[in-house]
Design brief:
Blueprint: H1 6-19, H2 22-30, H3 33-45, H4 54-68, H5 77-100, H6 107-126, H7 135-139, H8 141-154, H9 157-168, H10 173-180, H11 184-202
Helix pairs in contact: 1-2, 3-4, 3-6, 4-5, 5-6, 6-8, 9-11, 10-11
Length: 206
């Protein structure tokens, strides 16, 4: 799905771990900020009703990841993605706890948030499922979510928004139309064009 060899990022992860250099580690982690921001935004839009700012949540999660990166024991992008999701879930749970004035950690809530983040990741991958057919595309799915978010970031704002609302939040056309101040017919056409452009960018074909 992406022309980027999987080994490149995994070599960078291992090199960053071995180097112990915060700047090098920060550059590796920075590649995942857009992906984490989209996951956090979904929580803001649905479960947490915009009580927090997604960018602030992600910045906190990135700082926690950088501080703990030396303890990361993985060597693949899939392992790094799972680790970052766990950190993001912990940060989200902490903010929810703080908002409600609770001092005690709620392990069940953290697990629930982590599962929700994993579900959002699954929806990201499924965004292009209908256009994929090659075994190699399916074999690399655990990192495709990151590549997909990078492609989403390159789309025009309205394309990115309609894909987020339809594919990630799973809203019907009528509700998306209301959110975007457009007619349902216009939203359907926008969504089709957005997906076509996204697939063209990713080289997935029609």
């Amino acid at each position: 799905m992406s022309d980027r060899p999987a080994l490149d990022i995994e070599t960078a992860i291992v090199d960053a771990l071995r180097s112990g250099d915060r700047d090098v580690q920060g550059r590796v982690l920075a590649q995942y900020e857009p992906w984490m921001r989209l996951l956090a935004r979904y929580q803001m839009e649905t479960r947490l009703k915009r009580k927090f700012d997604a960018s602030d949540i992600v910045q906190q999660a990135m700082m926690e990841a950088l501080k703990s990166f030396g303890k990361f024991r993985g060597s693949t992008e899939a392992e790094l993605v799972a680790w970052l999701r766990s950190i993001l879930a912990n940060v989200l749970a902490h903010e929810v706890r703080r908002y409600h004035g609770a001092k005690k950690r709620d392990a069940a809530r953290e697990v629930s948030l982590e599962r929700s983040l994993a579900e959002t990741s699954r929806r990201l991958v499924e965004t292009l499922a209908a256009g994929e057919s090659s075994p190699s595309a399916h074999a690399s799915r655990r990192e495709e979510e990151v590549v997909l978010v990078e492609a989403l970031e390159r789309l025009p704002d309205d394309y990115r928004e309609v894909i987020f609302l339809r594919n990630i939040e799973g809203l019907p056309h009528d509700e998306v139309a209301e959110r975007m101040n457009r007619t349902p017919g216009a939203v359907r056409m926008l969504w089709v064009r957005a997906l076509r452009e996204l697939r063209r960018d990713l080289g997935a074909g029609e």
